[in-house]
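Exercise 7b. Backbone tokens:
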């Protein structure tokens, strides 16, 4: 009998076919997130789950007695209670590495777009606001020569730093651990957190969401930033306190925010942040290129198959959970 797998998100056709070749698959086929109640029902009989962003907690895992593997379609697994999964011998896999450059491209495009008011300009052209060329029209700020501060110098953070170097930016970072090799390679300077906040013209966030990093950027941190600072977030929305962000932007304590992630997410159209004219929000498209999504899909399938077989997935998040019992899906 083929193992039963439930997929909560739309995934590339290739991945769906690959998974379908070895598993009996049911998939949620909508842009809307699957309702919680429905997901709680679906997990009752499944051996494997492919998801991204759904809340996978003790309540859900208690309803999934056969579940052996959770294959996360993405690198961030803050939506999964890893300890609860581990306790139950459920292995969790993710997709690090393959999305690094694509996500860094998006982060850097937000830097450029925000700095040069690209969206404001393009929107204005569409509604007839382009009257003339004028020396004072739509003045942005220069990216070259500006200081780019990076929080979290992991794979994506360093890929953004590399792009910053190519644009002749001054580079600085804060991270819990020093990365001497990257410092030497890129000429990026380590700074204490508070100092970094006060020094940079662009602040790009690349840290995971954990209990320590939730609301890492809040009221106090905004007070330390320069009034010209442009905040970029492509990591997780809740690293920034949304209320404090709204206050900082509406009182012009910082200049602008360009966000690919929000808290809450998706951000509802009536949210106050969307009423501001110094905010640009994209819908969590960091890794959204077809090529990258196909690579992610292959990793998702490999992690899933290994987990269903009781083997270590190529990209395990909680290797200590590996169940002793082996089950072959051939
Ligand atoms: C990731 O890979 O973490 C993306 O943000 C999708 O969750």
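Sequence design result:
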């Amino acid at each position: 009998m083929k193992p039963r797998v439930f997929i909560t998100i739309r995934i590339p056709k290739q991945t769906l076919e690959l998974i379908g070749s070895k598993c009996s698959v049911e998939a949620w086929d909508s842009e809307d997130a699957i309702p919680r109640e429905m997901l709680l029902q679906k997990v009752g009989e499944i051996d494997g789950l492919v998801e991204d962003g759904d809340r996978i907690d003790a309540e859900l895992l208690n309803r999934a007695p056969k579940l052996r593997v959770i294959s996360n379609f993405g690198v961030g697994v803050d939506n999964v209670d890893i300890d609860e999964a581990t306790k139950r011998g459920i292995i969790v896999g993710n997709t690090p590495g393959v999305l690094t450059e694509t996500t860094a491209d998006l982060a850097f495009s937000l830097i450029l777009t925000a700095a040069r008011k690209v969206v404001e300009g393009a929107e204005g052209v569409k509604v007839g606001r382009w009257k003339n060329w004028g020396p004072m029209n739509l003045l942005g700020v220069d990216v070259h020569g500006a200081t780019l501060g990076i929080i979290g110098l992991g794979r994506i953070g360093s890929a953004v730093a590399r792009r910053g170097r190519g644009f002749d930016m001054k580079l600085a970072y804060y991270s819990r651990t020093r990365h001497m090799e990257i410092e030497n390679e890129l000429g990026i300077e380590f700074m204490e957190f508070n100092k970094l906040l006060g020094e940079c013209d662009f602040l790009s966030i690349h840290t995971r969401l954990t209990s320590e990093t939730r609301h890492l950027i809040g009221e106090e941190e905004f007070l330390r930033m320069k009034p010209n600072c442009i905040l970029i977030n492509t990591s997780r929305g809740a690293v920034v306190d949304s209320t404090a962000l709204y206050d900082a932007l509406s009182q012009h304590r910082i200049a602008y925010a360009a966000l690919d992630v929000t808290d809450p997410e998706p951000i509802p159209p009536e949210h106050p942040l969307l009423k501001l004219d110094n905010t640009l929000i994209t819908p969590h498209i960091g890794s959204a290129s077809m090529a990258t999504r196909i690579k992610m899909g292959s990793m998702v399938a490999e992690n899933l198959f290994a987990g269903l077989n009781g083997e270590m997935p190529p990209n395990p998040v909680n290797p200590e959970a590996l169940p002793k019992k082996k089950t072959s899906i051939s």
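Instructor comment: The mean pLDDT is 97. Residues 290-308 form the longest helix (19 residues).
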